[in-house]
Write a structure and sequence with these properties.
alpha/beta; disordered N terminus; five-stranded mixed β-sheet; globular
């Protein structure tokens, strides 16, 4: 309704045309990034759930069970055998190099992808808020993130990029910057209904161009991907980039995420459950407040001590000075 009224004003006043047209675009973007009228993501009055891309699901659990919360591939036996961090304090043994004992600064290169018509994107304010979210989450683990640069690209194929595609290879080959200890953060309206995905640190040596984190533009702080719009999709995916697995990996297996102080979890949690315990034979309730679970952004706020040790060991093995 606001957009229509603004366009009428444009027709009546050429003098104000530019200002009104610009405001019109802002209103359109605020109502779904210019993608037309649709139900806002999140819980609906009828009990259904709308995913970040507008797809309707019977429930939030249905959305979670599709695997779209995170597109990072589950680590296989080969990746785990390569990941030296598995022998670190989070999983026994010592890391290849000792942690320097000081906070490590991670340079961040932000790549914002929009459609050829300028659809999507993120503001510099959102980027700044996202960096603040990362610092709030990882500060206790010895990492701080510093924005180095932000670039903008108009490309229809990259705008809806999906993992493992030619578009991903082309995008990352063209835009990737820095070294192993820099984070490349790609922001796009990614395809397949995903919220994001990342690479593991052990993969850097064989494919440096591929390294980094990709997140949905609407998942940034202030985005429309409710209840995943406080910036913790980037936190979750950066956790993978730093060497962490999902808390529910391996189910109730003792191996699980290879971190000893995260209780075993049979399946991903969603929403903000209380008292959830899916592995009754193991000690502890499910770690639903952990950044590496699938709960809503407002409910995740913890990296465990073991996860911190694992990230630090992984950093020293695969990223420090590389």
């Amino acid at each position: 309704m606001k957009r229509h009224s603004l366009l009428v004003v444009v027709g009546l006043s050429l003098a104000l045309g530019f200002v009104v047209r610009e405001l019109s675009v802002q209103v359109t973007l605020a109502q779904g990034q210019g993608r037309g009228q649709q139900a806002r993501p999140g819980h609906q009055p009828d009990g259904t759930f709308v995913g970040p891309d507008g797809t309707h699901y019977v429930s939030q659990q249905d959305f979670i069970e599709t695997g779209l919360r995170c597109g990072t591939r589950e680590a296989d036996d080969l990746e785990r055998s390569l990941n030296l961090a598995g022998r670190g304090p989070g999983g026994g043994g010592t890391p290849p190099l000792p942690w320097p004992g000081t906070t490590q600064t991670v340079g961040v290169y932000v790549h914002i992808i929009q459609s050829s018509s300028g659809e999507g994107g993120a503001t510099q304010q959102q980027v700044g808020r996202q960096i603040n979210v990362l610092n709030g989450a990882f500060g206790g683990s010895g990492f701080q993130f510093q924005l180095i640069s932000t670039d903008y690209t108009l490309n229809d194929a990259w705008f809806v990029v999906a993992p493992g595609t030619t578009a991903e290879r082309d995008m990352k080959t063209a835009l990737h910057q820095g070294t192993a200890d820099d984070l490349n953060l790609y922001i796009a309206h990614i395809g397949g209904g995903l919220l994001g995905w990342a690479t593991f640190p052990s993969g850097y040596a064989s494919a440096p161009w591929k390294d980094g984190v990709v997140v949905l533009d609407d998942s940034l702080p202030g985005g429309s991907a409710d209840p995943y719009n406080l910036g913790d999709t980037a936190t979750h995916e950066t956790g993978h980039w730093a060497g962490l697995y999902h808390t529910f990996q391996g189910g109730c297996s003792k191996q699980g995420d290879q971190v000893s102080d995260t209780p075993a979890e049979k399946s991903p949690a969603f929403g903000c459950p209380t008292g959830r315990d899916t592995c009754l034979a193991d000690t502890g309730l499910d770690p639903i407040t952990n950044f590496m679970d699938y709960t809503d952004d407002k409910c995740m706020f913890v990296f465990s001590s073991g996860q911190t040790s694992r990230m630090q060991a992984s950093w020293m093995a695969y990223r420090y000075g590389k």
